[in-house]
Amino acid sequence: QVQLVESGGGLVQAGGSLRLSCAASGRIFSINVMGWYRQAPGKERELVAAITSGGTSNYADSVKGRFTISRDSTKNTVYLQMNSLKPEDTAVYYCSAQMSYGRSWGQGTQVTVSS
Q: What is the mean pLDDT of residues 63-77?
């Protein structure tokens, strides 16, 4: 299996920046795609950004141009750089790893953007 540990959430004012980190351990060689999802109160969990093992990335329309997903293979870590944050970005952010046999989730990290 794959274990994921997120860090980097917090409280920030609108227009500010945060960087989330997700460290993977375990059967990391089996990971095909890593991604960041978020879930706001009363809403469904949604994909924010994802990056494949080949380095291809995709983003939700709501974060394009503001968020950047990247990875450091030497550290088995994926990052989500979030700039120009808006109050509507407030949510619990989850890291996810997709393997051929299933998906793993991190514990989530709270991001709160004040207006």
A: 95
